[in-house]
Design goal:
With 462 residues, the protein is α+β, with helices and mostly antiparallel strands. The protein is 20% helix and 38% strand. It has helices at residues 6-16, 76-91, 127-141, 202-215, 233-245, 249-253, 330-336, 357-362, 415-421; strands at 21-37, 40-60, 63-72, 144-160, 165-180, 187-194, 219-220, 225-231, 278-281, 315-319, 322-323, 347-350, 366-380, 385-398, 401-406, 408-413, 424-425, 429-431, 443-445, 448-459. The relative contact order is 0.14.
Length: 462
């Protein structure tokens, strides 16, 4: 099977199906990575993998049921048992609540029969020498660099019994770099998301981290409390990604989320921010391209296996500070009466600002500058209250200058509430979410100024 072309596997699985409907998704994955510690490479490698998902639908007297089975490393001998397992799962299941006719009419991808795109160590051809230069600079400057670079390329083939033949190539690259002082008393982090490692320079990140380690030479202890706080793009991304993961229309209509309107309905049309914020997704956004059609391996609050192949349009979730859309499948759209708005593959916040983070620091009389957030967890879905920790550098800003590093904090905030209190948005730029970077990398955000960010307690984390 490893030598069989993915589109042939899809076609063969569809031929084997005896169900009333069938969707087959083949994901061809390849990845290349570099890891380093103490200014020296430690490991590197390349991996390959294949996952096949078969979704069978069976029409019964009470409605249509679906069965989903996914397996990796499928051999030719495994293919028919996999299809039969999906059919058995469908026949053993009750009617699917989200059942809809399988999608039809989408033009076939012209490259559907081509072999998968693959990454290799060649993706680091320019990056690796620059990384070596960063190591040399770090050694000369008395700091140690730790981190990793990972590039993966997933080619997805979607075929259905209704005639869809779609393909999408999705590159994802992440770079995370930590700089530490030799005694480990100071640490700073920087990360970047990239499609091909041609737009990231580790020497630039090392220079940025050297400055931050210098800031940390002066330590300042501060108590818990509310502080004017500059959230960098990475922190804004982590908060708003979680907000969008909580933005299913059905949950809102049923009164279970922060987007539920007291007394019934949703908060669509409500002003969420006094700033002219627009939160949007666009599968064709340059540098943040994502699948232009639905790829659903399972059904959930914001996805349905019956919607596989459905076109994904550009969507504004918040427009001019006003809540405009919540995520819907065809089923939940019909159930709620809200427009069809499939789940997203990227997230972009435009705030109308043009200042860099450095310029926002220069305009701060007294406040905190964060590096990133981590260990984010939900406390209350009704308000979307989140808690989490700061990490790898919280800095005190006084009279437009960073004057030292302060202790870490635990925070308690709702991203929806933060949008309502934000007093300034900086320039939108591509960013890597620190907390959710393993699951979501395609984001562009501005820095946000929050006049009263709630640092609920002091944390001893680094």
């Amino acid at each position: 099977m490893s030598r069989t072309k993915p589109h042939e596997i899809v076609e063969r699985a569809l031929e084997l199906s005896t169900a009333d409907g069938c969707v087959v998704i083949a994901d061809e994955e390849s990845s290349a990575n570099l890891r380093w510690a103490g200014n020296a490479l430690t490991t590197n490698g390349v991996t390959r993998g294949r996952t096949l998902t078969v979704i069978a639908t069976v029409d019964g007297k009470e409605g249509t049921a679906s069965g989903v089975v996914s397996r990796s490393a499928v051999t030719a001998a495994d293919l028919e048992p996999l299809v039969r397992a999906a059919e058995a799962a469908a026949r053993g299941a009750g009617p699917a609540e989200d059942a809809q006719p399988l999608v039809t009419g989408t033009p076939a991808s012209p490259d559907f029969t081509d072999g998968p795109a693959e990454t290799s160590s060649a993706v680091f051809a320019d990056f690796a020498p620059a990384l070596g230069e960063a190591f040399a600079r770090a050694r000369a400057g008395g700091r140690e660099l730790y981190g990793f670079a990972n590039h993966e390329l997933v080619t997805t083939y979607v075929g259905t019994s209704t005639g869809l033949r779609l393909r999408h190539d999705q590159p994802n690259g992440t770079l995370e770099l930590n700089a530490k002082s030799p005694d480990r008393s100071r640490s700073a982090w920087a990360g970047r998301a990239t499609r091909d490692f041609k737009d990231v320079d580790p020497t630039v990140l090392d220079a940025e981290l050297a400055v931050r380690l210098g800031w940390a030479e002066r330590k300042v202890e501060l108590p818990a409390g509310r502080y004017e706080t500059l959230l960098p793009p990475t922190a804004v991304a982590d908060l708003l990604i979680y907000q969008m993961w909580s933005a299913a229309a059905r949950d809102a209509v049923e009164g279970r989320t922060v987007f539920s309107k007291p007394g019934g309905g949703t908060r669509i049309g409500e002003q969420l921010s006094r700033l002219p914020l627009t939160l949007r997704s666009d599968p064709h956004s340059p540098g943040l391209e994502s699948a232009p059609f639905v790829i659903a391996h399972s059904s959930g609050d914001d996805a349905s296996v019956f919607d596989n192949g459905l076109p994904v349009p550009a969507t504004a979730w918040i427009s001019g500070g006003e809540l405009a859309r919540l995520t819907t499948t065809r089923h939940s759209s019909a159930l709620t009466g809200l427009p069809l708005s499939p789940a997203f593959g990227n997230l972009i916040l435009d705030g109308g600002g043009d200042k860099s983070l450095e310029e926002m620091v220069a305009g701060t009389e007294r406040g905190l500058l964060l590096t990133c957030l981590w260990y984010i967890r939900e406390v209350d879905p009704a308000t979307l209250l989140l808690t989490g920790l700061t990490r790898d550098g919280v800095y005190l800003v006084e009279n437009g200058q960073v004057t030292g590093e302060v202790n870490n904090f635990r925070f308690n905030e709702s991203p929806v509430d933060l949008l309502s209190r934000a007093s300034e948005a900086g320039r939108t730029e591509k960013t890597l979410p620190r907390e959710w970077g393993d699951w979501f990398t395609r984001a562009a955000m501005p820095a946000l100024r929050i006049p009263d960010f709630n640092m609920s307690s002091v944390s001893k984390g680094v």
